[in-house]
Amino acid sequence: MALQCGIVGLPNVGKSTLFNALSSTKAQAANFPFCTIEPNSSIVTVPDNRLDVLTKLVNPQKVLPTTVEIVDIAGLVKGASEGEGLGNKFLGNIRTTNAIMHVVRCFEDDNITHVDGSVDPVRDKDVIDTELQLADLAAAEKAMDKWQKAGKGGDKQAKRAAGVMEKLVEHLSAGKSARSLEVEEADEALLKELNLLTVKPVIYVCNVDEGSLPDGNAHVQRLKEAVKEENAEVLVVCAGIEADIAELETKEERLEFLNDLGLKEAGVNKVIRSCYNLLELITYFTAGEKEVRAWTIRRGMKAPQAAGVIHTDFERGFIRAEVIGFDDYETLGSEQAVKEAGKMRVEGKEYVVLDGDVMHFRFNV
After folding, report:
1. Which of 80, 105, 135, 233 could bond 87 through an S-S bridge, CB–CB 3.0 to 4.6 Å?
2. Stretch (H or E) spanning 72
3. Cα→Cα distances 139→94, 132, 301, Å
4. CA–CA distance from 229 to each of 160, 168, 232, 251 (Å)?
């Protein structure tokens, strides 16, 4: 789907360490600001137990999971919107992503420098938010001036656009992100044209010490309280531990390590799945003896468009989709058993694909 989730945060909060744990790409991670300059990118596998279940039931020759792209972006500092630090580069890099994973330092360690001299996740979050809001404010003011001038000639559409921009400028000036601004559906395209930074969906990843797993600490609780109105997910991970887990060679070793820590799964698994959901992506499956495969589509996509992800001919010549709900497949144990139980559905062009659907497409070109 070519959608990206960008890792952002202040310097030295553990972004690159987390990125290394998430991916097979090894970004430089060190105890000094701007260790990362150019963005690092990696395609990572989305953990999905449903794929494991289908693999056991079908026993295919090949298994292909779904993926998501994660981008590690240079650390931002106060004044980035005016070009401080690597501000312009940072803002340009984040503008190309579709969603934001905001890593916040929630651990104390005198050996790891903090750019502001102390650990305060709420302050750190506000620094990032402010710089992104200021960058968006500059873009919104420029657009507002353009539409106001156009509206002086009596152009009703220009006047309407100017009104939307005035509302956006007021919202951003109040220290609020564009994602919380309510506009009419007809005006959403105006905001989309600006490619705003603060309109992107966000999750917060609290990087804690090992002793604060799995539920966090006082720093985490303060951050949760600060973002409770945002309706954003807050995850707790220890990037250092995740990096150690990633270095282990076998699944058995990783499970043993997690058991020793009292954890059910690696924190990076939760992070990857959350990024996938944040991008409004869902998974459907195809299952046969040759291949069991997970396919990525946008939430709300109809059957012909979902078929087109496999091949454009599938969409162009779409006739129907034969659909099995994942729970029915797991419960009954095979496609044949599902058919005999009358649980396979035949759906047409208007069917909206659900997360977990197991599908066969019929087409003719």
Report:
1. 80
2. strand 67-72
3. 15, 11, 32
4. 29, 19, 8, 39
349: left (phi over 0), alpha (psi -120 to 50) or beta: alpha
In this prediction, residue 88 carries a pLDDT of: 61
Amino acid 90 reads F
* Alpha-carbon gap, residue 279 to 282, rounded angstroms: 9
C-beta separation of 276 from 68 below 8 A: yes
Q: What is the pLDDT of residues 245-289, one digit of tens each?
A: 988 988 899 999 999 999 989 999 999 999 999 999 999 999 999
In whole angstroms, give the CA distance from residue 172 to residue 134: 8
Q: β-strands 234-237, 281-287: how paired?
A: unpaired
- Tens of pLDDT, residue by residue over 49-102, are 999 999 999 999 999 999 999 999 877 767 756 654 444 667 888 888 999 999
What is the DSSP code string of 124-169?
HHHHHHHHHHHHHHHHHHHHHHHHHHHHTTT-HHHHHHHHHHHHHH
334's CB contacts (< 8 A; 6+ apart) are: 57
How is the chain split among helix, strand and coil, in percent rounded to 5?
45, 20, 35
- Give Cα 246 to chain centroid, integer Å: 20
Residue 72 and residue 7 in contact, taking contact as beta carbons nearer than 8 Å: yes
Indicate if the alpha-carbon torsion angle 322, 275, 300, 312 is positive or negative. negative
